[in-house]
């Protein structure tokens, strides 16, 4: 799509996000959006009735009197999107938009929902390395700066540094946050690095698919090139055996991704380039909201 067409569609998102925000914030995440996080505020003299568990031993020893730590409830929370800008996300597909454009629409909808709810929003872009980091902030101008930067993204050579991006997000986010990783997950060992991050934050893995992944058309003999490694193969797409093997390989990759998400306890969502991202996101968060109500 042209940049102007992408912006035209994104400009309709603030209105759509007003409805999505309610489902987004009541999606049953463990502690995010429930206002029960706490952060350190100050120390003061111990008073009768204070919880002895909050005594600060270092300060008490220094001044020879008992001091306790005081905490305040943390209600301003963070939504953080890790966005894959690697070459495989820009590869041509069967839909009207490519993987990256669908990923951008998804990220923008999440960002507008967070902005509507008054939450902080940040992002990290990566391809073969971490390209850009936006620290969490508030406001429409901050969000549009992130979207504008993403629109100018172009993939570098050398594969996908997903593990490095996960590590970078982990070092940036000190408090529990809602982290949304949007990628095609076409790289190895990303789950190893994610094991630590997923334990400290609420996490959604969003996988962007294309119809070509499972339904390769009969186009005769083609030369296919891996956009990240540059390797090529001669693909006899007129052979049903090739199209079957292509589908099987992609299904195996997707099943491995599902298994990794389950093992790590991640929420997961698949969005195709032919999908309406808003409808898929609404269905996802409404489903989580319904499951939460049933538990309570």
Low-confidence stretches: 30-37
CATH superfamily of the largest domain: von Willebrand factor, type A domain
Tell me the count of domains.
Answer: 2
Question: CATH architecture of the largest domain, please?
Answer: 3-Layer(aba) Sandwich
Indicate the mean pLDDT. 85
Strand elements, count:
10
Summarize the structure in words.
There is one protein chain. By secondary structure, the protein is of the alpha/beta class. The protein folds into two domains: 3-32 and 77-295, von Willebrand factor, type A domain (Rossmann fold, 3-Layer(aba) Sandwich), CATH 3.40.50; 37-74, no CATH class. Helices cover 42% and strands 23% of the residues. It contains nine helices and ten strands. The chain has helices at 3-10, 13-25, 57-63, 99-116, 140-151, 162-172, 190-200, 240-264, 277-295, and strands at 37-45, 67-74, 78-84, 120-126, 130-137, 178-183, 202-209, 221-225, 232-236, 267-272. The strands form three sheets. Strands 5-4-3-6-7-10 form a six-stranded mixed sheet, sandwiched between helices. The protein has a two-stranded antiparallel ribbon with strand order 1-2. Helix 2 (13-25) crosses helix 4 (99-116). The longest helix is centred in the C-terminal third of the chain and has 25 residues, at 240-264. The radius of gyration is 22 Å and the shape is elongated. The protein starts with a helix and ends with a helix.
């Amino acid at each position: 799509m042209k940049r102007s067409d992408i912006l035209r569609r994104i400009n309709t998102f603030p209105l759509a996000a007003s409805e999505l925000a309610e489902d987004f914030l009541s999606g049953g995440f463990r502690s995010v959006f429930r206002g029960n996080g706490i952060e350190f505020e100050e120390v003061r003299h111990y008073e009768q009735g204070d919880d002895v568990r909050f005594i600060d031993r270092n300060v008490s020893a220094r001044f020879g009197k008992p001091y306790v730590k005081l905490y305040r409830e943390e209600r301003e929370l963070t939504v953080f999107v890790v966005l894959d800008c690697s070459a495989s996300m820009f590869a041509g597909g069967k839909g009207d938009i490519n993987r990256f454009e669908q990923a951008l629409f998804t990220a923008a909808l999440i960002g507008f929902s967070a902005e509507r709810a008054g939450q902080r929003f940040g992002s990290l872009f990566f391809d073969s390395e971490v390209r850009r980091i936006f620290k969490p902030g508030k406001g429409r101008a901050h969000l549009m700066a992130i979207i504008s930067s993403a629109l100018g993204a172009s993939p570098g050579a050398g594969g996908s540094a997903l593990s490095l991006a996960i590590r970078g997000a982990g070092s940036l986010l000190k408090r529990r946050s809602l982290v949304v990783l949007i990628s095609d997950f076409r790289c190895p060992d990303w789950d190893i690095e994610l094991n630590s991050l997923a334990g400290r934050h609420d996490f959604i893995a969003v996988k962007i698919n294309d119809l070509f992944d499972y339904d390769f058309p009969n186009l005769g003999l083609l030369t296919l090139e891996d956009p990240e490694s540059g390797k090529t193969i001669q693909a006899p797409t007129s052979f049903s055996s090739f199209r079957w093997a292509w589908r099987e390989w992609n299904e195996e990759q997707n099943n491995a991704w599902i298994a990794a998400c389950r093992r790590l306890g991640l929420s997961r969502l698949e969005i195709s380039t032919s999908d309406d991202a808003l409808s898929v996101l609404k269905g996802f968060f409404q489903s989580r909201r319904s499951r939460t109500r049933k538990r309570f």
